[in-house]
Design a protein that fits this description.
Blueprint (H helix, E strand, L loop, with lengths): L2 E8 L11 H5 L6 H22 L7 E3 L5 E3 L6 E7 L2 E7 L5 E6 L6 H8 L2 H9 L3 H19 L9 E4 L4 E4 L6 E7 L2 E7 L5 E7 L6 E3 L6 E5 L1
Parallel strand pairs: 1-11, 8-13
Antiparallel strand pairs: 1-5, 2-3, 4-5, 6-10, 7-8, 9-10, 9-13, 11-12
Helix pairs in contact: 4-5
């Protein structure tokens, strides 16, 4: 119970929809092609992960929390969080409690400093402009916030609910007692996780493009943020 699983993938990987019930696939029929690809790949990845780690033949039934966050109706199954950025897809599974994950491909963003001044604290903005690459620093702060908000069931419009001290790897948030933030740079991709305080290990896997199975990966150099 003190570990979580992180599975990374590409939207171009070989995803089988055989474990996704037909009624689930029907929900994607009205989506535009790009959104449908993301949606189907995420559900296929989730179904395969539940088969590998929990022995489920098909994607189990889900419910939606009061905060709008999906979870499995069967309480014995792990909490999960899906995220994508460009062609990057990641899934976080955590049996120990609520989780949240975010992946961000580093990319140009117009007026990112204006966004930072509107969404981040003065301490964060000062840290950001002092970095060698302020735009990359922007994505780090954004990614950490997204992970926390997904754990809490919040939206991007609630960025102000958390304040980061990146220089000291600390944060202040409304509900932070049972949360630790994990952050790692993976090439030109940033990954952030929000996990229960008791989780001490993240097992990392990558989808094998040829078989669709999972390959165990060497752990990323995670930096951990604790509540102030």
């Amino acid at each position: 119970m003190n570990r979580a699983q992180l599975i990374t993938a590409s939207l171009d990987d070989n995803f089988s929809l055989s474990r996704v019930p037909a009624q689930w696939l029907m929900k994607s029929e009205g989506m535009n092609p790009a959104r449908r690809q993301q949606w189907c790949a995420g559900r296929a990845l989730l179904a395969e992960a539940l088969s590998v780690f929990s022995g489920c033949d098909n994607l189990p039934a889900m419910q939606i929390s009061a905060q709008g966050k999906p979870y499995f109706a069967d309480a014995s199954l792990p909490h999960f969080s899906l995220s994508h950025s460009k062609h990057h897809l990641q899934l976080l599974l955590c049996p120990a409690g609520e989780d949240g994950g975010d992946v961000e491909q580093i990319r140009p963003r117009r007026r990112y400093l204006d966004v930072a001044r509107a969404a981040f604290s003065d301490i964060e903005c000062q840290w950001l402009v002092e970095q060698a690459d302020p735009q990359t620093a922007f994505w780090q702060l954004w990614c950490l916030r997204e992970a926390w908000l997904k754990q809490q069931g919040g939206s991007v419009w609630q960025m102000g609910r958390i304040r980061l001290e990146p220089g000291h790897q600390r944060f202040t948030a409304e509900s932070s007692a049972d949360c630790r933030l994990w952050f790692a740079a993976d090439g030109n991709v940033m990954r952030a996780l929000a996990l229960p305080a008791g989780v001490s290990e993240v097992e990392e896997y990558k989808v094998d493009a040829a078989s669709g199975g999972f390959l165990r990966q060497v752990s990323l150099p995670w930096a951990r943020f604790s509540p102030s």
